[in-house]
Amino acid sequence: MKAWRLPPPVLLLLPAVIVLAAIVLLPLLLSLYSSFTPFRLTRPETIYDWVGFRNYERIFTDADFWIAFGRTVLLLTVALNLEMILGLGLAMLVERFTRGQRILRTILMFPMMFSPILVGFQFKFMFNDNVGLVNNALQSLGLTDQAIPWLIDGTLAFIAICVAEVWSSTSVFAIFILAGLMAMPRDPLEAARVDGCTPWQTFRYVTWPFLMPFAFIAMTIRSLDVARAYDIIKIMTDGGPAGRTEVLWTLIARTAYSDARMGMANAMAYVAILLSIAFTAYFFSQLGKARAQVAADW
Amino acid sequence: MATLTLSQLDKNYGAFHAVKGIDLDVADGEFVALVGPSGCGKSTTLRMIAGLEDITGGDIRIGDRVVNDLAPRARNISMVFQSYALYPHMTVGENMGFTLKIAGRDKAEIDAAVAEAARALEITQLLDRRPAQLSGGQRQRVAMGRAIVRDPDVFLFDEPLSNLDAKLRGQMRTEIKQLHARLKATVVYVTHDQVEAMTLADRIVIMKDGNIEQVGTPDEVFNQPASQFVAGFIGSPPMNMADAVTTATGLRFANGLELPMPPGFNVAEGRKVVFGLRPDDLYPEGHGIHSEGGHAVTTMDLTVDLSEPLGNETLLFVDLADKRFTGRMLNPRRVTPGEVMTFHLDLSNAHLFDADSGLSLRGA
Amino acid sequence: MDENATARLKKTASNWTLNVALFVAMAIICLPGLWIVLNSLRPTVEIMAKPPIWIPQSLSFDAYVAMFSGIGEGGIPVISYFRNSVIIAVTSTIISLAIGMSGGYAFARYRFKGKGGWFLGLMLTRAVPGIALSLPLFFLYARVGLIDTHAGMILAYTALNVPFTIWLIDGFFRQVPRDLAEAAQIDGCTRWQAFWQVEFPLARPGIASAGIFAFLTSWNEFALASQLTRSTDSKTLPVGLLDYTAEFTIDWRGMCALAVVMIIPALILTYAVQKHLVSGLTTGAIKG
């Protein structure tokens, strides 16, 4: 008699499922539970007080939370769109070069190797109002004689953070779109030129429809990782000045560790998690469609 | 429609000289085929006409207009690609109407033009499909439809039939021919298949190593090849060739065999030449392609090494002057290997080429 | 001017514009890194100088020497951090590769119910922001005594890396024709042997790049590490970087030197796999 065995795919997936259940799912359930308590790290017994939706009610009526939420969405929208456009441009610039491609591609990947925390420090240094590269350059070029308070003024700090974020992640888009460009069949491009397309029309009607799934891959991968921006912001401004660059993730960290209000922080974290998952799931579904299209046609 | 003139057209890729200053005039409405082995520069020439490659030197003129540096879109040409190059994300109809859409024509006009082209090519029922859903032959028709819709000055074809199977290729060949007869279009057609060139073209341009070897009508390049290369390239099975030296009365081959001088050739004694004879002109007695009177026929008994029956004819392989020669037997009968047959060599159609330059010695 | 000359001029002009644009873009990409390297070699006075000194006056490796001479300038135990980083990153990479290979193989080779759903589910676990995960994980780890241990960090990073390794390795196994393993089985291999003899060697470059990607993620991670590590027992380099910041001042030179130390292994590894990395991700995504 044959011994009863698990079917192979189940067996093969089991380790992954166990690890993820233990390190991700279980803590998430725990944080879901604790988001319904007034849990404070300093008073462990509070984890047994059930307060229902009180934390959620508080954060939903908390202006600071909504401002941070709005700023997070704004940051993501601005950064992801800029990265996409710049990445596309960069990829097309690099693709023109047949010689020296390998070197160019390596340089292109350069920022991907930087730990986000390094990016944070690097740009904190460069945007430093006193010794930073940016102000030094502007002053030496005579464009301004004052020290521009990059990280001290709220709006400028937001811009500086966007610059750092775009610098560190444009490569992801550029690399994937470049891979798409290289995989693209040449003949339809030439046919378009003969058919009377200007370079812009060739891009619009032929190149872009082909590249779209590659852009979605990049978007999907990026959306898995958007919270890396936390590291950058944490270092550059830590949500400051006076909360003017506070995003969801810095707010959560502050609430949890500085204020020790874990229950509240977990409630916020849940909102952030749902936001991330929504972004990712959306791009995954788009990817599925784009992929079906490419697989069927190209 | 318009004329097309290439003068001293040159193309270098770094140190590699791909096209070496060629001259060519294509008349209005003429169908010209560029043939040659791969790497001979025929595709590069076509792509330069299209504007897909920059030219290194010389001029390209479409009509009265010099188009050397113009972008492809400014040249008013159509091109059919080897891979068809259909836009995969557009339907057949959108593919065909694309060029008019880009030109900013209104929808009704585009639809009418597409419908007419589709009717001509019998692909009306395919207009809503995507290229991925079409067979090779259907894609080929769509690619031609796309070219027709534009109503260009010059049609360019880049090996359009090479991705089709043999049967379809024959069928499409006929259709292209009919289409050309109807449209009276100026066509430049690149192919490596000499049968396509022979059947389709008004004139054939044979290229080799970036040079033009010969320009002529199919009849001229077949019957009066300008060089050994052309003679070997045109015709199937290829022309039989053997080295020989001229004597006072004719030719002597390395193994001592002597043949009379073919008519039409007058070559001084002691010259090294290459003798060429098409398989059609080497046949067993009574099985020839030509009427046997009035020709300079030499008779010889030869042993058949091998035979390839093709139904309507049989190819016979014999040893002549230490070379394997192919002969063509019409109204065939069974031939067993080793059989000795009496062969006729029709020397009035034979060729002589200079052994060094490879050029034809006809009239020299 | 005739139309050919105009067309030629336009072409040349646009060529030059695009070349210049590429050069500027590449300069912007490289500049911050070079700036860091330069400043790690300069004395602090020069970094702080007003007006700025553009051409370095004196270069030295003092910062590096100080950093590696144990508790040196600023008292930063870089060697411990480095060791912790290596142990944690390497171990978690190996484990996530093993798990990723088995998972990736399952997705690439078997059909099962809810395959798409499982895949999406695994990927979504990656979307949970590190900082959001760190709160309950901190609590959980505190309970079982994993705070400030290598094991805790290794586990956390394994979980972080598994989804991505599965995605990558799935893509690479898909590229290996199914026929090959079947042929090997007909030739007398068991399925297990067929995997190790045929499919694994062919997918090896992809598995290597998945490994390096996992390594880099662990090597660079900060959000989790900053909460789950406490002392030199388990603090990693990214967390160590913070040691250079005091309340209001930052030792820029020391920090730049540590940054260079962090970036060099990453640089080498990324260069080694850049080709496979992209092809793996795209095949996985396009042919999914």
UniProtKB/TrEMBL annotation, chain A:
InterPro entries tied to this protein: ABC_transporter_permease, MetI-like, MetI-like_sf
Domain ABC transmembrane type-1: from-to ranges: 69-283
UniProt KW keywords: Cell membrane, Membrane, Transmembrane, Transmembrane helix, Transport
Main localisation: membrane
Compartment(s) of residence: Cell membrane
Gene Ontology biological process terms in this record: transmembrane transport
Membrane topology recorded in Swiss-Prot or TrEMBL: Multi-pass membrane protein
GO cellular component terms given for this protein: plasma membrane
Transmembrane segments: 12-33, 73-94, 106-127, 156-181, 202-221, 267-284
Similarity field: Belongs to the binding-protein-dependent transport system permease family.
Protein name according to UniProt: Sugar ABC transporter permease
From TrEMBL, chain B:
An example Gene Ontology molecular-function term: ATP hydrolysis activity
Domain ABC transporter residue range list: 4-234
Single GO biological process annotation from the record: carbohydrate transport
Short name of one Pfam family: ABC_tran
Record keywords, A-Z: ATP-binding, Nucleotide-binding, Transport
GO cellular component: ATP-binding cassette (ABC) transporter complex, substrate-binding subunit-containing
NCBIfam families cross-referenced by the UniProt entry: PRK11650.1 (NF008653)
UniProt family annotation: Belongs to the ABC transporter superfamily.
Protein name: Sugar ABC transporter ATPase
Source species: Marinibacterium profundimaris
UniProtKB/TrEMBL annotation, chain C:
The keyword Repeat is assigned to this record: no
Record family assignment: Belongs to the binding-protein-dependent transport system permease family.
InterPro entries documented for this protein: BP-dep_ABC_trans_perm, MetI-like, MetI-like_sf
One Pfam family of this chain: BPD_transp_1
Protein name (database record): Maltose ABC transporter permease
One GO location term (cellular component): plasma membrane
Segments crossing the lipid bilayer: 20-38, 86-107, 119-142, 154-173, 255-273
Subcellular location: Cell membrane
Organism taxonomic ancestry: Bacteria, Pseudomonadati, Pseudomonadota, Alphaproteobacteria, Rhodobacterales
One GO BP annotation of this record: transmembrane transport
Domain spans labelled ABC transmembrane type-1: 82-273
Taxonomic source organism: Marinibacterium profundimaris
Keywords, comma-separated and alphabetical: Cell membrane, Membrane, Transmembrane, Transmembrane helix, Transport
Membrane topology designation: Multi-pass membrane protein
